[in-house]
Every structure is written in structure tokens, then in C-alpha cells.
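Lab meeting, item 3. Inverse folding demo.
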């Protein structure tokens, strides 16, 4: 009977002296000696069709591609098998042909799937129960060693990947009170060179020293204070400013069954910041140039308009002359409107002045706006409809900006709607706030056009239906004003059906008026 205490003692001796792949090879030597066998193979199943030899005590040779089905035939339903009269077939012959008897054990763990095979060139006298017990004990060592090798391989990959990235990365394991950093973090936090696992105390000192050097330390401390009250606090693009660099800091907690901690990522965006300043300066110069050009164009256009207005006073004009003057005046008006839009948009996006909010009764404001489009709608036989939410609403917003937004949206709906259709202005409440929708029955907006809808000076495939003019700035102004008001804008469009623009105001800007009776729908 085998003395398994001897086997375990040999295994412990191996574990004390070997690591990595050498440990697995040493295990194999011990099990071969203990079973008085001649060969041992550890085979890993790669997939349904392929298995390969991972370790062996025999002479190194090219590892054949093994069909796992042949090994399944040997083990069948039991994890252990013993064949006293073994005859290998097909691919197994290349490495098992020297053996007259063969024992095996199936490994079926989530970290390793495969087989242990042990062969004897002459019949063995060992009891089958002892062979099975020895292979069972050996299988535990194989699985643990395999898991250790996988961990080492993963750690080496992580070391390589994180070592070459320029960002400084800090990973803190709060349960084990351990940390891990990459080379960039060592340099940034002035840690011990080459120490990828600094102590929590050293890491804390390095983080604190870095923070104390920041020029905006007060702002940083205000944000950092939130960690005390909220362990789940997460932030990205947290700016730390220094004399020689600008760090964009990301930090967030990590929770899993195996890890509880936090990750920090420090990215030096100094070059990006400089480029952004340069682009901002160039952008401001362009905007100023546009404003100057637009302003300078306004004067000659106004002079031309005055001249056209003065011409009828010089004497009688024939019909052709009168028509040309009217056409000229319309062209000048379109040019002046475009200039006004350009100047307004430039002032809108460059001004940092806050909007002037006040409480307004929304229904009354919408009626006033819609009434202003009655004549334009009449010219195209379009019916304007106003539909209100169930209760009168008070909206806390800037009325001038809201009027401009709705003017643009309703004007566009009328311009792009065919004759004899309907345009709806609707208000409704949804869970996240108030919705003001402008819906038309026009041609709709294609998917390609929707991608450039709010960009300046964009010409879309759909065209006004009565030769109306369009500057290409209206929806850009709508987008900019909507953001200033703290709202969002949504677009829902189906080609040949119509388009709906929705302004969504957060619930905190809205309150209801009680005890006021209002018609739920009106047609103008």
C-alpha cells in the first residue's frame, strides 16, 4: 500500500524550492517516481476540437494537436480510468505508443479543463485505488499550479500594459489595505522607484504632497471633502492645476465580489489645454471678424433700401420698375435679417451673461407668439393649433429667449409645410418636466440631415414650400438658447409625415396654477 504522507512531503518540498512552470514540472517528476511510472502528461482542452500537451516528463517534442474525443473515449463518465492493455490510436500514438498500461484523471475546473495521463512501459503492480488516490491528490496540485501560472501571466500583462501608458494609474484595495501603481504614478507621486505596490501610508503621503502643490488647492479640497460623506463618489475631468502641468483626474469606486476599492487616473492635459486656448483665441478672432463684416454690411444695405424707397418720389414708374424695386427691397430685407441673425448668434455664444429668469404664464405667452404668425399661416392656408397641458402652468424662464426659440420653431414649421396642412403648438407634462412641442405635417427630416440639424449655415435637403428665405442659423440659435435656459431639445421626424421639435424644461422650473379654468384645445 502506498504511503501518501511521503507523496505530500515531496510535494511540500517542491513547493518550497520551485515557482512558475518549474513547479509543475517538479510535480510531474514526483508523481512519476511515486507511481513508478515511465511517463506523465498534463493535457489542456482548448475547445471542442483541440487539446494540447502543457507539461510532460518525456523528451521535449512538437506537441501534437489532439482530438479531445479520443480522451473522452478513455475516461467516459468516470474522472479516473485505468487501461491494463492499452493500445493507442490515431493522434495519441505520437506520444503514448511506448506505454502498455495507461491511467488517467479528468480535470474539469473552470480554471483548467483537461486530463492527467500516466503511462507504464511494463505492467504495474500498484493497486488501482492507490493510483486513483495519487492522481486525485496530484490533480489538486495541477489546478493550483495552473491558477498560479494564470495569475502570473495576467500580472505580467497588466504590468506591461499599464507600464507603457502615459497616464498615472493608482488602484487601492480597501479590504486588503494594499495598493498598486504604474511607473507613471511612481514618478508623479514621488514614490520609491520600482515599487509597484507601495504601502498605504506612502501612497497617502504622495497623494497629499501632489495635492498641496496644486494652484487651485481650495477648489480641489472642496471636491475632495465629498469623499468623506459619500464613499461612492465618482468624478471625471477633475482639474488639478500646477505650474508645469494640468492634470485631469478621474476617480471612481470599484465594487465586486473579489475587490473593493478605488481607482485613480491622472492625465496631463497641458498640451491639450494650450491647443484649446489657441483654438479659442482663433475662434474669437473669427467671430469678431464676422461681427465686424456683418456690421459693416448693414450700412450699405440700409443705404440701398433708402434709395429704393426714394425712387418712387422722383416720378411715375412703370410696372416693371415697381416690381424690380419691390424685389430689391425683399432682397435687402433678407440680407439685413441674415446680418441680424449672425450678430445675435455671435453675441449669444460669446456672452457669459446669465439669462434673466422670471415667472411667466405659459399659455398667455404661447398665444401671443402664435397670434403673430396668423397672417403667414393664412397665406398658405395652414391651420395653427394650440393645445395646453391639463393645468395652467407657470414657467420660470427668460421670456425673451423663449419667444425667440418658439419664433424660430413655428416659423420653420410654416416655411416647410405644404399648403393646406396643420401646425400644432402643444404643452404637456412628463415625469422629468415640461414639454413644449411644435409639430408640423411637412416633408420630415432625413437621417443624414438630422446629424447636422443644429450646426450653423446648414442647408438641408428639404426646402421652404413658398420661396421663403432661410438663413441656416435659426436652429443653431434655438440650440444655444435652449442650453442657456437649462432645457434640452429633442427631434422626432418621419419623412413624408412630419417633424416635431420638443423643448424639455426640468421640473424645478415648473409649477401649476390652481383653480383656473382653461380650454384644453383651441384652433386659430
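The presenter then showed the designed sequence:
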Amino acid at each position: 500500500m502506498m504511503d501518501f504522507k511521503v507523496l505530500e512531503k515531496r510535494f511540500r518540498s517542491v513547493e518550497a524550492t520551485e515557482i512558475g512552470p518549474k513547479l509543475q514540472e517538479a510535480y510531474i517528476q514526483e508523481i512519476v517516481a511515486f507511481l513508478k511510472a515511465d511517463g506523465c502528461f498534463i493535457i489542456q482542452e482548448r475547445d471542442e476540437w483541440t487539446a494540447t500537451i502543457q507539461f510532460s516528463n518525456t523528451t521535449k517534442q512538437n506537441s501534437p494537436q489532439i482530438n479531445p474525443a479520443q480522451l473522452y473515449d478513455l475516461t467516459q463518465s468516470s474522472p479516473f480510468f485505468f487501461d491494463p492493455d492499452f493500445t493507442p490510436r490515431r493522434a495519441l500514438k505520437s506520444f503514448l505508443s511506448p506505454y502498455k498500461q495507461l491511467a488517467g484523471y479528468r480535470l474539469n475546473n473552470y480554471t483548467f479543463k483537461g486530463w492527467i495521463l500516466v503511462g507504464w512501459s511494463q505492467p504495474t503492480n500498484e493497486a488501482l485505488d492507490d493510483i486513483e488516490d495519487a492522481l486525485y491528490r496530484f490533480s489538486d496540485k495541477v489546478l493550483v499550479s495552473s491558477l498560479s501560472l494564470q495569475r502570473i501571466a495576467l500580472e505580467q500583462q497588466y504590468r506591461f500594459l499599464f507600464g507603457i501608458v502615459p497616464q498615472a494609474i493608482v488602484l487601492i484595495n480597501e479590504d486588503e489595505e494594499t495598493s498598486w501603481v504604474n511607473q507613471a504614478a511612481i514618478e508623479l507621486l514621488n514614490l520609491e522607484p520600482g515599487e509597484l505596490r507601495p504601502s498605504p501610508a506612502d501612497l497617502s503621503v504622495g497623494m497629499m504632497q501632489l495635492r498641496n502643490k496644486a494652484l487651485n488647492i481650495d477648489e480641489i479640497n472642496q471636491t475632495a471633502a465629498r469623499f468623506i460623506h459619500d464613499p461612492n463618489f465618482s468624478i471625471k475631468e477633475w482639474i488639478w492645476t500646477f505650474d508645469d502641468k494640468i492634470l485631469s483626474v478621474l476617480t471612481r469606486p470599484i465594487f465586486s465580489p473579489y475587490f473593493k476599492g478605488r481607482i485613480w487616473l491622472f492625465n496631463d492635459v497641458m498640451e491639450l489645454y494650450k491647443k484649446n486656448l489657441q483654438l479659442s483665441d482663433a475662434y474669437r478672432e473669427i467671430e469678431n471678424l464676422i461681427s465686424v463684416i456683418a456690421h459693416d454690411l448693414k450700412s450699405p444695405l440700409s443705404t440701398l433700401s433708402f434709395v429704393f424707397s426714394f425712387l418712387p418720389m422722383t416720378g411715375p414708374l412703370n410696372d416693371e420698375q415697381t416690381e424690380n424695386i419691390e424685389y430689391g427691397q425683399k432682397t435687402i430685407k433678407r440680407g439685413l435679417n441674415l446680418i441680424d441673425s449672425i450678430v445675435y448668434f455671435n453675441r449669444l455664444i460669446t456672452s457669459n451673461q446669465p439669462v434673466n429668469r422670471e415667472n411667466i404664464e405659459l399659455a398667455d405667452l404661447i398665444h401671443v407668439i402664435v397670434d403673430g404668425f396668423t397672417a403667414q399661416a393664412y397665406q398658405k392656408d395652414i391651420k395653427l393649433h394650440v393645445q395646453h397641458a391639463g393645468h395652467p402652468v407657470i414657467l420660470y424662464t427668460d421670456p425673451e429667449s423663449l419667444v425667440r426659440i418658439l419664433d424660430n420653431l413655428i416659423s420653420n414649421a410654416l416655411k416647410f409645410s405644404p399648403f393646406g396642412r396643420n401646425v400644432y403648438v402643444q404643452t404637456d407634462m412628463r415625469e422629468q418636466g415640461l414639454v413644449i412641442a411644435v409639430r408640423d405635417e411637412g416633408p420630415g427630416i432625413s437621417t443624414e440631415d438630422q446629424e447636422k440639424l443644429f450646426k450653423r449655415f446648414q442647408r438641408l435637403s428639404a426646402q421652404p414650400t413658398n420661396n421663403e428665405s432661410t438663413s441656416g442659423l435659426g436652429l443653431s440659435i434655438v440650440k444655444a438658447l435652449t442650453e442657456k435656459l437649462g432645457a434640452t431639445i429633442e427631434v422626432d421626424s418621419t419623412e413624408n409625415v412630419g417633424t416635431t421639435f420638443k423643448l424639455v424644461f426640468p421640473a424645478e422650473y415648473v409649477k401649476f396654477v390652481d383653480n383656473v379654468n382653461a380650454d384644453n384645445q383651441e384652433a386659430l
